[in-house]
Amino acid sequence: MPDDKNQSLRISADKQEIDLKQGVVIYSGDVKLIQGTLEITAQKIHVRKDKDQEEESFTAEGSPAHYQQQPEAGKPIIHAEAGTIHYNVKTEQLVLDKNVSIEQNGSVTKAGHVDYDIKSQTAKFSGTGRVETVIPAKPEKKE
Known about the structure:
Elements: E1 10-12, E2 15-19, E3 24-35, E4 38-49, E5 55-69, E6 78-88, E7 93-104, E8 107-117, E9 122-126, E10 132-134
Antiparallel strand pairs: 1-3, 2-3, 3-4, 4-5, 5-6, 6-7, 7-8, 8-9, 8-10
């Protein structure tokens, strides 16, 4: 949702390591990040902060890491998974890498790499293999 970035950010994990000098916080062990409708779950999440100490980017790693978010009111939730998920808060860019799978409204697209612009809701799929999309058939209406 467009308002997600204005919501409070909550992160829970089994462990947390902080390097204030480098502006890095590492959460590990069953990590869950929630901000509005945005949810990222992973085995490890690195949070990098800029010099103003505002959250700048998140890198989630997992087998796989999971992402979900509702793009707009009334639109279906986007579910994605990948080995690595990188999210830049300021630019609203999402980069998914390694065995990417994205599902929305029953359609599933798989690729090796995806660049997704959350603001414009545009995506570029690529990778070493082919990109595959499955769109489910619509059931016939019986009268």
